[in-house]
Amino acid sequence: MDVKCAFFNGVLTDEVYVEQPPGLEAGGPDKIYVGDIIFGSKSGRMCKKFADIMTKKFHMSMMGEMNFFMGSQVKQTKECILINQSKKLDTEKVGKLVSSTKYGEIIGSLLYLTASRPDIAFAVGVCARYQSDPKEAHTDAAKCILRYIKRTPNLGLWYPADDDFKLTGYTDSDFAGCGIDRKSTFETCQFLGSKLILWFSKKQTSVATSTTEAEYIAAGSCYSQILRLVQQLKDYGIEESKVPIFCDTSSAIAISQNPVHHTKIKHVPIRHHFIRDHVENKDVSVEKIHTSIQLTYLLTNALPKERFNDLCGRIGLINLEE
What we know:
alpha+beta; 3 domains; globular; five-stranded antiparallel sheet; Nucleotidyltransferase, domain 5; 12 strands; 8 helices
């Protein structure tokens, strides 16, 4: 549905002006984007009923079956759903970068592209750290990402139409991976069956004192995402219990089951320990996985070509033209 009204929550008594934040001015006042919404149901009758209600209540119009949304191309078949963001590069935009503004624009576009391209999430995340004062080395790295995207414009996520809705999570941490402040970056991804539905990579707010601490915090963050997904699945009548989270660090798994390694986690804030309660309640289980098949490595490290391509295939990232 195409949304034609930006304010749904009440009658406005004052004039409201919408403008872009300072430093991001582009186009003119007629270029402001409001937004669309998507909805779905197995029942065509319910879809029509919902659309009728919304169009009568708000300024909206139906656009039919979704095949394009917020920059993402969507192809729906009886067998699967394919999502990708084909990005066409302008040669002027990949020339020599001379300002933080231009560098920031490129990084902003790349960050948006990671919505359907987890294969570039790690590289883009590293480049994004230097937006305030980019140097030539940083712009060269950004250009490498752009060249990779130009060679692989049709990569997208594959969602097969099966009945496997088993929820699983993968978690990892790059201990002290940031060369500037030595903070760790943790990564998580969640699957419904073989379908990648969520991935997340973030630098931790404080310096971890050990690999165990970094991995344990990452596991807690992974379960935060799992907990939200479990609640959402309940809305669709799917009950999940003892959701497995795969981690490749034995000491972090041991702590989640029993806080015996107290000397290794004495600096961990209390808020990260909630995962132990859920392990005891059998809501989740933290399990060992071999490093060679740890899927979050795609979000953690610069990898050899063979390993990189293997992990891309394992998470369902395929060439949509083949």
